[in-house]
Amino acid sequence: MDQLISAYLIKLRREHPFFATLSLYMRYEFDDRIRQFTTDGRTARLNPRYLSNLKASERVGTLLHLTLHCALNHPRRCGSRIAEIWNIAADIVVNQIIVESHFEAPPNTAIDPRYGDCSVEFVYSKLLSRARNMATQGVTAVDQGAESDSAATDCSRHQANQDQAVTDSTGSHNPSSAVDTLQVIYPGVSDLLVADGQQHPMSQAQQHQNSAYWERALRQALVVDRMSHQQQGFIPAGLERAIDEVLDPQLDWRTVLWRYMSRTPCDYSGFDRRFIHQGLYLDELQSESLNVHVVMDTSGSIGDDQLARFRAEVESIARCYHAIQGHLYFVDAQVYGPFALDASIRVGVAEGGGGTDFACFFSYLEKHCDPFEQALCIYLTDGYGTFPDKAPDIPVLWVATDDAVDHFPFGDVTRLN
Question: What is the mean pLDDT of the chain?
Fold first, then answer.
């Protein structure tokens, strides 16, 4: 078995320095009791007979498949989601990366190019919604080939309004029927041992240590890849996005808002009145206060889980600064509000549920707000909807879910993981 692992590492070293470096951080163990292969996020465990019987290209794909699961933190990111569907979604993501890198994906693992360049969370939500719809309508595996490729379109265009909102796994549908339906379409290996499903799950401290371990591995692999100057070391777009998910954490709101409150040490807003009576006309720094318009997207494409995350972010924003004068709005194709935004706010039931029209809110601001005030719009959304024809005068910070970060024609964008 050591010879097989060595052959795998040598091949990657010649053809893909990034993957080769990443694989050096991986532990590979062999156990006859394992049917095929599994990973807990740190160690890949394989059946030696199964691995030996694979073609050489399939062995490379299998070992790389497990390595990417660990490096991209897929076991831990599962959370409270349905483990079987999460496993399929994670397989689709890593296999697409493998194929785009000109390697062969392992056998008996899910492949679906329609979800190329999408996050695991996005693929999971689409698979869950698809499976529940099929189970409800009695669609069989034979019929599923006639379905449209709307999932791929949703990932690259602004058409989420046409999708059914994804319900929580504890909703009215039976999760087991959704799993059974999906496993007929994507038969494969349950190779992810998620934290809640292990006999001896990692503690929180161990999970944090494991995440930090793979962050270091990813950074080192990126350095080696950039130093190699080899065309074979090219990192596909899907892998770059997946790496960003791990290495680019959510910004702290204090840091984000301070950037807008005091843009530079040389931003001035008239004379400082404290010194005018002395005959001194000194410029006043433009960092005294900030009027923040916080918008929660409450259209039909936003599920309960996303709304809960939006609420938490809004309450975090309100607690940041006493100098903030804030207003909260719920917006789908209409504007609901404004509501006072202060440190004691607890966001209640969100109004909305219709289509998504970003233009209506910016039209509202243009009519009702002072164009000369120091203001900022923070818009929490999935990014799918109708944008205004021109950018507004007010600075806009989009806080986007899923894979919507490339959809915005103006403003700054950060991802809500």
Answer: 76
